[in-house]
Amino acid sequence: MWRRIGLPFAKTTIGSGLGLVRRLVWTKSETGQKFAVVWGNGDYGRLGLRSLDSQWRPAPVLCSAFHDQGIRAIACGGAHTLFLTEAGSIYATGLNDFGQLGISDDTNYTTEPVEVTGFQREIVQISAGYYHSCAITADGELYMWGKNANGQLGLGKRAPKVVPRPSKVESLVGITIKMAALGSEHSVAVTDGGEALSWGEGGSGRLGHGHESSIFGFFQSNSEYRPRLIKKLEGIKVKNVAAGLLHSACIDENGSVFIFGERAVDKLGFGGVNNASTPAMISKLPCSKEVACGGYHTCVLSSGGDLYTWGSNENGCLGIGTTDVFHLPEKVQGPFLKSPVYQVSCGWKHTAAISEGNVFTWGWGGSHGTFSDEGHSSGGQLGHGSDVDYIKPMMVNLGKNVKALQVSCGFNHTGAILEHA
């Protein structure tokens, strides 16, 4: 993939308390070749760099297992990462405590990508949730694996609580799945006919089926163990779906955005309620083409390339220059005033977007992180060489002669697909 001169980047030491900071200097390579870079928390080998170290700036995933295949897509989950090659093969790295890597049930984690096998056709799409994963084949079949405690794999009520190998969702045989998105404990998908399906943990209304929690919230199960049609969206052709921690969203063929789950419609003109247990349309948005859901924030990309965000705004994850909560969609400005946004992804409390071939990140940088130990940071997921928060979009230094094609945010790590320009 790269002309091999030791490594495809130079490693230089920059004076900081963070140790070595890698400055990317890509060697000349064949135009159009695609590869993956990762950064952020390195616990359990989720970055696939053969170590447990965190990365403060983008580092290329050099893996002999790829056999020089170009990398088409990346999906970052809770503490694991999936890679999809140009040939339609999947590789996984990171934590495997619930079988989310899809490689075996006796490996707790791996620090470098391992091939995931068991598919009858080539894979065209991948998605990673907090503890579970999925893949869609070229003929629209859905395979899932990982944690299944709340039915999030869609394999039926009698399926095991942990499924360590890819398993076809048999109830969907004969139905062509075009897209799937995985949240913390639930899954959503859309068929080629535009029908929206959801399954898994239904608390907080995140499945859109009208589940109402009991008075104390734990006396009844709201789980769906097989994919179930979202009735309120019948007759509406859905094109894009997203799943977050406790909420979900979708966009129809007309560019209308529907959202459901915890904090989904807080003060958005629905009586001030926090949860919408069935899809509610957000009227304060222009024609939209992509939606992304994070921990407690949501991003929508308009057909014209404008980015809108709203939600809790912890650590500045909305990118609007403040940490104030926004209950209504707010346009993200800064660098996007002059250049349209191409793609967006949400982590737990950080966000990434692509504009004109560059990656921009903002939100939680990792300081005082969930997994910090003895004052050491657990982050770096913004890729700016530090663990501080940014409340406005900041461009990630990807080096020269490359452009970004895709970006994916995990819980506290980030990955991107780059192409040699």
Describe the structure.
The protein is an all-beta fold. Helix content is 0%, strand content 43%. Pfam families: WD40_RLD.
Largest beta-sheet characterization: 4 strands, antiparallel
Number of strands: 30
Helix and strand pattern: EEEEEEEEEEEEEEEEEEEEEEEEEEEEEE
Ranges with pLDDT <50 over ≥5 residues?
1-23, 214-219, 267-273
- What's the Cα radius of gyration? 20 Å
Q: What would the average pLDDT be, to the nearest integer?
A: 88
What is the terminal-to-terminal distance?
A: 13 Å
Shape: globular
Helix content: under 10%
By DSSP (H or I, 4+ residues per run), the number of helices equals: 0
- Residue share in β-strands: 35-45%
- What kind of oligomer do you see? single chain
Write out the strand line-up for the largest beta sheet, numbering strands in chain order: 4-3-30-29
Helical/strand content category:
mainly beta
SSE layout and pairings?
Layout lengths: L9 E3 L8 E3 L10 E7 L14 E6 L10 E6 L3 E6 L4 E6 L13 E8 L6 E6 L3 E6 L4 E6 L14 E7 L8 E6 L3 E6 L4 E5 L23 E6 L8 E6 L3 E6 L4 E5 L14 E7 L5 E6 L3 E6 L4 E5 L14 E6 L9 E6 L3 E6 L2 E6 L26 E6 L6 E8 L3 E8 L1
Antiparallel strand pairs: 1-2, 3-4, 3-30, 5-6, 6-7, 7-8, 9-10, 10-11, 11-12, 13-14, 14-15, 15-16, 17-18, 18-19, 19-20, 21-22, 22-23, 23-24, 25-26, 26-27, 27-28, 29-30
Keywords: Receptor, Repeat
Protein name: Ultraviolet-B receptor UVR8 isoform X1
Organism: Ziziphus jujuba (Chinese jujube)
Notable traits:
four-stranded antiparallel β-sheet; disordered N terminus; 421 residues; 30 strands; mainly beta
